[in-house]
User: What shape does this take?
Amino acid sequence: QNDSSFTFVLFGGTGDLAMRKILPALYEAHKGGMLDESGKIVAVARVAHDKAEYLQWIEEHVRGHVPKSDFDETVWQGFLSRIEYVQLDLSKQGDFVLLRDQLLALPSGIRVFYLATGPSLFVPICRALADVGLNEGARIVLEKPLGYDLASSNAINDAVGEIFAEEQIYRIDHYLGKESVQNLLALRFGNVLFEPLWRREWVESIQITIAEELGVEGRGDFYNQTGALRDMVQNHLLQLLSIVAMEPPHAIESDSVRDEKLRVLRSLKPVQRGDISKVAVRGQYHAGVIRGTHVPAYAAEKGVPPDSSTETFVALKVEIENWRWAGVPFFLRTGKRLADRVAEIVVNFRQVPHPALGNMPAGQNRLVIRLQPNESIRLYCQAKQPGEGWDLAQVHLDLAFDQFFKENRMEAYQRLLLDVINGRLALFVRRDEQEAAWRWVEPILDEWATQNKGPKPYAAGTWGPAAASAMLAQHGTCWLEEE
Ligand code: BG6
Assistant: This one.
C-alpha cells in the first residue's frame, strides 16, 4: 500500500469544466511532479464509448487549454497514460457496479470523486456510489453552484451528509484557490503592521470589487436562472469579505480559518426587506463598447429571454455586527461587461485626528490590494510637496508580486485539486459557512423576485448603474475608479 497513491474519479469527464479547468490543472500538477507516480485519473461520462474515444476527445478538446508555454509532448503522453475511462449511465445501477470493479482493479490509495456536473446530479451520484460501497473512506468534491437557495442547498447537503462525513466533503470555491487570495491571509497575519489598524477605530470603509469584462459566454441559459448575486456574491464575494474581516485564526491548516470565517458570516447584519433598495443595487447591461468592440445587450444573448430581469451587476452595502467592525460599511460589487477586468480590495483609513500641518488634501491613507490581474499592493500616504510651504500631496508605495516571485503562479484549480488529493480542507467551504452565506443573501433574492421593478440598466463597458455610485456618495465616499 502506497499512502500517497490516489484514484481521481471525474464525473462529467467530457463537460466544460473538465475541459477548461480540471484536466489542464491535473496536467500541470503531473508536469510539476506533484502527483504520485501510480496515481490514476478515471474519467466518467456517457458520451465516449471507450478509452480510445475518450483519449481522442482529450486530444481535440483539452490539449488546446494547456498554455503553450507549459506544453511538452513527452510530458503530455505521460499524463495521458494515467487516464482510464468508464462509460456510465447514471440511471443504471449496474454501471456503478462496473465502475466499482474497475476501481478495485487499480492500485489502492486515496479515492476522490469529483462531481463536475450540475447540482441536480450530486445526490443521485452520491447515492449510487454508496449503494456499491464506494463512499467508504473516499473524498467527494462538489462544484458550485451548490443549490439555488438556502432550502435547495440544505437539501443537497443533508442528502450528501447522510453518505459522506463532513471531513470527506470538499466544496469548491475557486477564489480560495487563488494565490492572491491566500496572500490576503499572509498580509493580515504574517505582518504586525496592518493588524492593529484593521478595525473600526482606524478604518472608515472597505470596498471589494470583482469586475469582469466578459459577458455570459454562451452560458445564457444557466446564467439567466442564476444572476450575479447567486453566481458571485453568495460565494466568492462573501468568502473574500470573511477573509478580510475575520479574527486571526489559531492555525492555517485546520478548521480554525473556517471557524473564523464563519463567525464573520454569522455577524453580517441581516438585510431588512424594507431597506433593500438602500443597501443593494442590481443592474443589467445593455449594448455598449468594451475596448473598442461593440457588444450586445444581455437580453440579446443566446438563451436569455428579451424581457429577462436577471441581474448581471450587484452592489451592496454590508455591515458586520461585532466590536471590530461596528459602523464600518463594506461595499461589495461585481458585474459582467464592466469597463475592466479587476478584482480589488480597498481599505480606506480615517483622516488624521488633527491637521497639524494645516489643510489636509482630500483623500487619506488607503491600502489597495489587487488580486487580479497583476497581483499588487499599493499603500497611499501623504508627503510634503517640495517647496517653502507645508502643502501635502498623495504618494504611494507599490509592491508588485511578480518582481519578487519569478516562478509561475499555480492556477486555482491546480492548488485545490492537490489539496483534495492531499486531504487539506482549509481552502474548501464548510457546510455551516455555505448555509450562513445563503441565509444572508436570501432576503435580497426574495425581495428582488417579488419587486415589479427590474434591474437598473447600464451600458456595457461602464462601471454599472449610477445608483451604485449614489449609494457610496451617501456615505461620503466613492468607488476607487471615480476618484
Ligand atoms: C465563476 C462564475 O464562479 O467565476 C463565472 O460562475 C465567473 O460567472 C467566474 O466568470 C470568474 O472567475 P475568475 O477566476 O475569472 O475571476
Remarks:
- The longest strand covers residues 203-211.
- The mean pLDDT is 95.
